[in-house]
Structures are given as C-alpha cells and as structure tokens.
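Archive maintenance. Older records in this collection stored only the sequence; we are now back-filling the structure field for every entry so that each record is complete. The fields below show one back-filled record exactly as it appears after the update. Entries are processed alphabetically, and YueH family protein is next in the queue.

ARCHIVE ENTRY
Title: YueH family protein
Organism field: Heyndrickxia vini
Length field: 79
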Amino acid sequence: MKIRKTILNDKEMNLFIYENKKDEYFVVAIPVIEWSTTYTYDDFGDMLLGKLINSLSLKLADEDAIALAHRINQWTREM
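Back-filled structure field:
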C-alpha cells in the first residue's frame, strides 16, 4: 500500500492506494473525506478520469475534484 500526502484547500490529507497485481485492480481511499473507490487496470484513460471526477464531486467542489482525480490517475499509473 502506498500513502500519498496531498494538500487540498490548505489542508494536508493522506491518500491510500492499494494495488492488487494478481487480480489487477486498485483501491483508493481518502479517510478524511470518507471517500473510496476501486477500479481495474482496464479502466485507465478518460473513462477512469470521468469516474473519479464524478465520485469525488459528491464530496468536494468541482475544481478540487478535478485536480484530485488527475493526481490519483497519475499516481496509480506510476505504480
């Protein structure tokens, strides 16, 4: 599991990323905003970005959701 620190609205928060290489999926969680999601390796690209933005928009302002979705997408692609 990877723990990434990110700053959003002048608050530092931990973002937890778990990768299951055998079953080819990720679990991403941000406990501070009570948010989590799962997705497979096949979900990368615009489809994944849209899914993350839509899900995060329920907990955050649209601008923050978009910025955070891009960060999550980048971090999981690096793994």
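Update note: The beta strands are 2-8, 11-20, 25-30, 35-40. The chain has a mean pLDDT of 93.
Entry marked complete.
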